[in-house]
Amino acid sequence: MKFSTRAEYGLKAMINLAHTFPGQKSIKELSEEESISLKYLERLMGTLKKNGLVLSTKGQSGGYVLSKKPSQMTAGEVIEALDGPIAPMKCTSSNCAIAKSCNSSTIWTELEHQIKKTLYGYTLKKLTDKK
Amino acid sequence: MKFSTRAEYGLKAMINLAHTFPGQKSIKELSEEESISLKYLERLMGTLKKNGLVLSTKGQSGGYVLSKKPSQMTAGEVIEALDGPIAPMKCTSSNCAIAKSCNSSTIWTELEHQIKKTLYGYTLKKLTDKK
DNA sequence: TAATATCCTACCAAATAGGTATGTATTGAT
DNA sequence: ATCAATACATACCTATTTGGTAGGATATTA
Hints:
The structure is a homodimer.
Chain A: H1 5-20, H2 27-34, H3 38-50, E1 54-57, E2 63-66, H4 75-83, H5 90-93, H6 105-121, H7 124-129
Chain A binds a DNA duplex through helix 3.
């Protein structure tokens, strides 16, 4: 059971952007500061943008900004944007037909709830204050 | 973020064994009742045995039994036996050098704690009673 | 117009998941 | 003693995911 490094890298980059908020920062700066491959981070920022979590300006002196205040953006949003829906077991996401009579389903459902509660409980602001 | 079907299948099989406890049951029966490929389940039971969660008797009319009472065996044990250590991010398992100054590490650590709390909070007995 | 960004798409290697195939060893029943 | 049923072991296979790289197109500004 693991989250991908996508989620790790993305969260790090978003925390970095939370620090500089409401200023913007280029991928180049982000990748150097967080030691993430520039080309890979480029793709991650692309999907974060597609999901509306960051805004971008192109061209020279362009870069990325958070689309919301750090106090209003949660780690859960970032992670689901990059890794897809949080659903620890297929049966919790795909409406299993036998869920009602299945002994296992309760545990996966509760687990999903706990994970979401934790991840959506952390705003980027909370994470930047942590240090 | 997903657990493997290994964990799902294994947990189902163990819940089944909890129902028949302290009786034993063959892989053939288990695989038919839970609709899991016999050969695949064979392997899963093998690793469960290696981890001491089940006992087996070979030969005709052989099979598997839980090594502990259902009230003393948790879903967490089963899942970690099959899927490896519960550690949502590499940095929480491999003693990252910069963990203390890392803004992200707290969230992964808390998440790991919450997941373990949930999974080790469910005994097989609790799951069999659920229906 | 040159430099610096984002953006877009295709490719790639390694690992993992999920499963099959084949055979061996052990035991109970006939 | 033999046969059938079972656990046990290992090698193989295919598809998907992960974590990247490569090369360029597009937009903006100095």
